[in-house]
Every structure is written in structure tokens, then in C-alpha cells.
Amino acid sequence: MGQLETDQLEALSAQELHDRAVRYAVHHGDFAFLWELLKVIPAAEASTGNEDETANDLSRVSALLSDAMASGEGELGDALRPFYIEYLSRHPDA
Questions:
Q1: Which of 2, 16, 29, 43 fits a 20 to 30 Å CA distance from 69?
Q2: How many other C-beta atoms can be found within 10 angstroms of the C-beta atom of residue 28?
Q3: Which residues contact 81 (CB under 8 A, 6 or more apart)?
């Protein structure tokens, strides 16, 4: 993906990036991306100052799955923007 397309992704909200990336990954069965998302959520939550949620997520897979579905919202979505942009830049048809 070229610079113009990356700039277009940068202009999207965290929620839009999340929705595009997760929708594409689910539609294409990209479980590696979804698993990677689950793994980066605790670090993203820690970066937002939510250490209590990080500890809970590390011990509860169900919390991670719930977080993955809502990980485009608020501070967490903003913390995950680079992750979504990198993924979407590799999948220009997303």
C-alpha cells in the first residue's frame, strides 16, 4: 500500500479502523490477525493506564474476546490504531 493509502487510513477513526480490520479478518478467516489482536490488547490497555483491566485480560480469555469486539472504542481503540493501520495497509481490499 502506498503513502496515499496509508494517509487515508490515518484519517479514519479508531472505530472505523477496528471495524474494517476485524470485518476483513473474520470474512477471510484470518485467525492469525485475530489472535494477534487478542495478544496486543493487554499492552494497549496498559498504555492507556488501565493496569487493572490488563491483569484481568491476561487471566481470562473471555475478557479478551469481549475486548476484541470492542477494541475500536475510546482510548483502547486509539492505542490500537497503529496495529489496525499496519494490517489494513497489507490488505488494500479491506
A1: 2
A2: 12
A3: 14, 17
Interhelix angle 61-70/31-47, rounded to 10 degrees, is: 90
**Residue 94 in contact with residue 12, Cβ under 8 Å?**
no
Distances (CA, A) of 9 to 44, 50, 56, 58, 66: 19, 26, 31, 30, 24
Supply 39's cell numbers: 495478544
Q: Enter the pTM of the model.
A: 0.61
Residues 60-81 pLDDT 10s: 666 666 777 778 888 888 898 9
Cite the DSSP H helix spans in the chain.
3-10, 14-27, 31-47, 51-59, 61-70, 74-90
Residues 69, 49, 13: CA angle, nearest 5 degrees: 45
